[in-house]
Amino acid sequence: MNTDWSRHVQGVMTLYLSRKLRFDDLFFEQYEKAFRLDKTRKLKILELGCGPGALAEALKRRYPNAEITAVDRDSTFIGFAKKQIPGVTFLEADVTRLPFRDGTFDVTVSNTVQEHVEPDAFWGEQRRVLKTGGVCLCLSARKGIRQTAACLAPTPEETAFWESLSDAPDAIETYGVGRFSVSEAALPALMEAHGFLNVTTHYAVIDLTPDAPKFPPETALLMIEAERQGELEAIASMDAGIRAVPAVAAVNRKYDERVRLYKAGEKQWDTSVSLTMILRGEKG
Ligand SMILES: C[S@@+](CC[C@H](N)C(=O)[O-])C[C@H]1O[C@@H](n2cnc3c(N)ncnc32)[C@H](O)[C@@H]1O
To answer: What's the pTM value of the predicted model, to 2 decimals?
Structure first.
């Protein structure tokens, strides 16, 4: 039972809500254009490092004929996904030793996983489990624009909390997060070097601006809630017990205020725009 990622790196709701937004139908056509998959076929799709399952959930919605399996080594994520998302097979497994026979899948896909996994194992296992002619899709988050609302600036309670933990171990270092990150030019070259053919790149732009009128209220409120959960889970990951109480209360007050301002139509124009690089390659 491995819960390192969900306990110390990114919590369940941090990942689930942020990805639910990134893979919302509002944005999904961008991915579909890059994926170039036949919706009419009963494709066997494997997602690697699925976390709490938001991409697998979106794939099931957008490719209803597909048979989708999704794996992650974190048991909390897999437990959450099994309860939350019907129609997908979720399994606890290590992507460097996939429990599937050679040539099982038509498609493999991953979102923000490549940078954490040793490249020979990451690409090699996907090539092994793909059928000849199968498609490997690799999604990778790139820099974007982030402008926080003034009402969401760190409060004195939060600042005091984080300062009190300044000698706590750094989860990013401890768990090797992002240890295999590479540039936008090196990533497609790496895919080719691992034997994939016809490699292409695309970029999806994900604009999360709650006050923009193009977003319906439920989506705008989900954007605010996703940020709240990210901050609360970051505090929870420190296992600080009662010391965390003032910071948690302060975060909730800030986000309650942000929701109030949204509902009152007092625009803040805070925004988080991210770029997702989408690589597509084929097994020859
Ligand atoms: C940045 S998270 C992304 C999760 C998910 N793809 C998403 O976008 O919500 C990276 C994920 O990779 C998983 N992971 C890292 N190394 C792994 C490995 N060797 N085998 C299986 N999962 C792994 C972590 O548990 C975590 O869920």
So the answer is: 0.96
Q: Which letter does DSSP use for residue 270 in this model?
A: -
- State how far the alpha carbon of 102 is from the alpha carbons of 89, 113, 127, in Å: 19, 21, 8
Predicted local distance difference test score (pLDDT) of residue 105: 98
pLDDT-derived band of residue 246, with 50, 70 and 90 as boundaries?
Answer: very high
Q: Amino acid identity of 59?
A: L
Q: How are strands ordered across the β-sheet holding 196-208?
A: 89-92, 67-72, 44-48, 105-111, 130-147, 271-283, 196-208
- Ligand 1 atom 25: residue of nearest CA: 74
Query: Which residues are CB-contacts of 173 (< 8 A; sequence separation ≥ 6)?
Result: none
Domains of the chain in sequence order: 4-283 (3.40.50.150)
Residue 161 contacts residue 247 (beta carbons within 8 Å): yes
Query: DSSP for 199-261?
Result: EEEEEEEEEE-TTSTTS-HHHHHHHHHHHHHHHHHHHHTT--GGGGHHHHHHHHHHHHHHHHH
Q: Which residues line ligand 1 (CB under 6 A)?
A: 5, 15, 19, 49-51, 54-55, 72-74, 77, 94-96, 111-113, 116-117
Residue 169: pLDDT over 90: no
For 61-71, what is each residue's pLDDT tens digit?
A: 999 999 999 99
How much is the mean pLDDT over the chain?
A: 97
Q: Tokens 């300044």 sit at which residue?
A: 166
Q: Quote the tokens at residue 152.
A: 């969401």
Return the residue matching tokens 């948690």: 248
Instruction: Find residue 206's DSSP bridge partners.
Output: 274
Ligand 1 center from residue 81 Cα (angstroms): 13
Q: Which of 74, 48, 55 is nearest to 16 (CA)?
A: 55
Question: Is-contact 100 130, C-beta < 8 A?
Answer: no
Q: Residue 227 and residue 283: Cα distance in Å, rounded?
A: 38
